[in-house]
Amino acid sequence: MDLTSYAELAVLLINNPDRLAGLEGLRALLEEGGRHRPGLRLTRGDLDALRDLRAELVAVFEAAQAGDEAEVVERLNSLLIRHPVQPQISGHDGQRWHMHLTEGGRTAEQYAVGAVMGLATLVTDLGVSRLGLCQAAPCRRAFLDTSSNRSRRYCSERCASRANVAAYRARRKGGGQ
């Protein structure tokens, strides 16, 4: 089972704090993450729970950025205990049978289980170094490095271009052309 898409839920939550200002923003976040279903009922409790989860996930990515593997693992293990996985076989939208991590419980819990299990699987399969924070100042958005050579340093092409242009201009200004 490829859980990278589940790990992307963590990145989406971290990078969109503005979407946690209210229920409509949360609904938009869930739609973007493919987690919104017709008739989905969202509560203030879901919003509060995802705000708390976001803070915990930011701490995981900060520990990864600092190279503190033990801290990343400790934080993820703590999250896995609080958000236990409930796997289910699912078939929908013309797809073959495949695994989903959870379909029951509150919306926030479903999101948390997917995000945490996705990150835990990515860390155990590819390593802590695959969790990153954008190196383009002042961005600091989270990203997953799924490149084959572990070379990703920016959250987007836009940030990479901006950082490269800034470095080029600094070299030219300093006479390093």
UniProtKB/TrEMBL annotation:
What Gene3D superfamilies does the annotation carry? Answer: Jann2411-like domain
Q: Where is the Zinc finger CGNR domain?
A: 130-172
Task: Tell me the InterPro entries matching this sequence.
Answer: ABATE, ABATE_dom_sf, Znf_CGNR
Note the superkingdom of the native organism. Bacteria
Q: Which residues form a coiled coil?
A: none
* Name under which the protein is recorded: Putative RNA-binding Zn ribbon-like protein
What is the species of this protein?
Streptosporangium saharense
Its lineage opens with:
Bacteria, Bacillati, Actinomycetota, Actinomycetes, Streptosporangiales
